[in-house]
């Protein structure tokens, strides 16, 4: 079944998923570009740790591993490297001396802010090349996509 929207023919089902995947590559490439401009470079796996801590706040290693879909020993090694770089800190939890709390350092927060600023600039440059109607349609579609993705992500377990 083919639906039409304006001048474009929009495929349904898996064909639509293939088309969205193809078109999303530009978004992914633009998103990842900020990593290439950071010196020293932070590998994507370590960036995920920092982003998770920024999003969820301080947490213990078990929760971080769960958020990353990783085993605790792998998450711990990532944290070791980030702590050595001064981007993450470990502290004894106030609630339990046996538990360690992980959080961003000021330097870690500044690095994430620099990533975000680079990404915002790149996206602004692209969006300025689009018509106002296309920008509105994109934003509306992304809101709906985000809502639907949240439902899918909330209902599925993290991969091992």
List keywords for this structure.
single chain; 160 residues; alpha+beta; three-stranded antiparallel beta sheet; two-stranded antiparallel sheet; 66% helix; disordered N terminus
Walkthrough of the structure:
The two termini are 36 Å apart. It is built from six helices and five strands, in the order E-E-H-H-E-H-H-E-E-H-H. The chain is an alpha+beta fold and 160 residues long. The strands form two sheets. A three-stranded antiparallel beta sheet has the order 3-5-4. The protein has helices at 13-37, 44-56, 61-68, 72-84, 106-128, 132-155, and strands at residues 2-5, 8-11, 59-60, 88-92, 100-104.
Count of helix runs: 6
Helix and strand succession?
EEHHEHHEEHH
Based on secondary structure, the structural category is alpha+beta
Strand tally, please? Answer: 5
The gross shape turns out to be globular
Question: What's the assembly state of these chains?
Answer: single chain
User: What is the overall pLDDT average?
Assistant: 86
**Percent helix range:** 55-70%
**Main sheet characteristics:** 3 strands, antiparallel
What fraction strand?
5-15%
**Terminal CA distance:** 36 Å
Pick out the low-confidence regions.
Answer: 1-5
| Strand line-up of the largest beta sheet | 3-5-4
Radius of gyration, Cα only, in angstroms? 19 Å
């Amino acid at each position: 079944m083919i639906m039409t929207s304006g001048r474009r023919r929009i495929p349904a089902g898996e064909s639509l998923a293939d088309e969205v995947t193809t078109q999303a590559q530009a978004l992914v490439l633009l998103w990842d570009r900020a990593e290439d401009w950071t010196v020293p470079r932070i590998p994507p796996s370590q960036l995920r740790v920092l982003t998770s801590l920024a999003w969820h706040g301080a947490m213990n290693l078990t929760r971080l591993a769960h958020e990353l879909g990783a085993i605790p020993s792998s998450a711990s090694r990532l944290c070791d490297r980030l702590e050595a770089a001064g981007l993450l800190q470990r502290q004894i939890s106030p609630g339990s001396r046996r538990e360690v709390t992980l959080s961003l350092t000021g330097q870690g927060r500044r690095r994430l802010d620099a990533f975000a600023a680079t990404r915002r600039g790149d996206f602004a440059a692209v969006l300025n090349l689009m018509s106002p109607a296309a920008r509105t349609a994109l934003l509306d579609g992304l809101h709906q996509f985000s809502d639907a993705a949240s439902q899918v992500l909330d209902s599925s377990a993290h991969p091992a």
